[in-house]
Amino acid sequence: MSVITRFAPSPTGFLHIGGARTALFNWLFSKANNGKFLLRIEDTDRARSTQEAVDKIIDGMKWLGLDWDDEIVMQFSKNKRHAEIAEQLLDTGFAYRCYLEPEEVKRIKEDNPYVKIESPWRDPSKPPVLGIKPAVRLKVDNRSETSIEDKVRGSVTVLNKELDDMILLRSDGTPTYMLSVVVDDYDMGITHVIRGDDHFTNTFRQQQIMQALSWPLPIYAHVPLIHGADGAKLSKRHGALGIDFYKEAGYLPEAICNYLLRLGWSNDDLEILTKEEAVGLFSLEGLNNSPARFDYDKLNFLNSHYISQKNDDDLLKLLKFESAVIEKRVGEAMPDLKIRANTIVELQELADLYYVKKDPTDTKSKEIIESLDEAILLRIKDILEKLESWEVSEMKRGLGDLAKERGLSAGKIMQIMRAVIIGSFKAPGIYETMCILGKEEVLNRLR
């Protein structure tokens, strides 16, 4: 069959890291099988859904390079179709009208949130209640069982008597999420549902609807959720933030995708894989059945790798410059700068050193400057002013003579120059940096 997958986020907040991983797995599987990857926005929760969240989801998908086929499906726009299916289930006896009022159900749930709601109107002989708008519930066959063959969890069976008769249409006539998902998946031709295992229990209920309608069942793969490094459920303190946070923090989309790929999927010992390489290797059999742990150190390692491998000109486009002169300086230094940064933010900080002399940014630089006397700075300025050629070899020779004169090591002189000229020990070699800055800029900083 032709593979069709989907990513179906709810626009009630940002595109979080777990959702991005789900989108990536669906994208990879569709590409690996020459299929389709579709995007559906599940905006049935009208009170919490916002256009801002929709925009952030779409921007995040585009930034990650997870392109989708066909038009985006907005779930709420299909309400009429969903309601028609509920009516069809009523006509065939697989659903019934329930006159339990929402306040009554809420009261029961408050006493016991896990209680199974049993509606008296499951019995077709019970008469309707005048003046109350009924909800529509699915009539589960509670004498049988439901089995799921999951690509991650394997074969799992539950007794239907453990499932309640879920609501398909609320009393105001609006469809519930559980019904809408099933109808949309069928109408979109979804063949494989790859999602987080927090949806696993929903699958048994949703399968009841499919069976009542004699619709084909998709193939399921429920992926364990991401945990923090401490093994606890992932939260904001672990890194459960929106994709836009990682973008602003200076992570590259290719590094994020590579990292998310390894959070729950494996292929031998391969650690560094582009999306294009992963397409050729990805399969559902490679999905892990235990929770992955979010690790910033691994993410930083991958990000630094992708920064170091990125084209210099492409990196320059990601930075901000005050002038073309500064951009030229940073461009010359980029081969050395990019191997020193974990993020684009760190790379920008290094690039800023070529713009203006800042106050020392580390303790070592501060200590060196506080211990200096004016005489040695004047002597350094005098030597550099007299250099006929502004080259590394000439700088080393002139300042090497000063080191001997003062009884200092060459390394100590280099430390002084780092502290005075750039105020940081993070930057590349000081003489190379001075060369790029130019004689006038270095002398200005000395002054």
Mean pLDDT over all positions: 92
Please tally the helical runs, counting DSSP H or I stretches of 4 or more residues.
Answer: 19
Low-confidence stretches: none
| Spatial strand sequence of the major β-sheet | 1-2-3
Q: Give the overall shape.
A: elongated
Q: What does the largest sheet look like? A: 3 strands, parallel
Oligomer: single chain
Secondary-structure class: mainly alpha
Q: Beta-sheet strand percentage?
A: 5-15%
Helix fraction by DSSP (H/I, runs of at least 4): 40-55%
| Cα end-to-end separation | 74 Å
> What is the number of E strands?
12
- The radius of gyration over CA amounts to 31 Å
Description:
- The structure is a single chain.
- By secondary structure, the chain is mostly helical.
- It is 46% helix and 11% strand.
- The protein has 19 helices and twelve strands.
- It is elongated and about 105 Å long.
- It starts with a strand and ends with a helix.
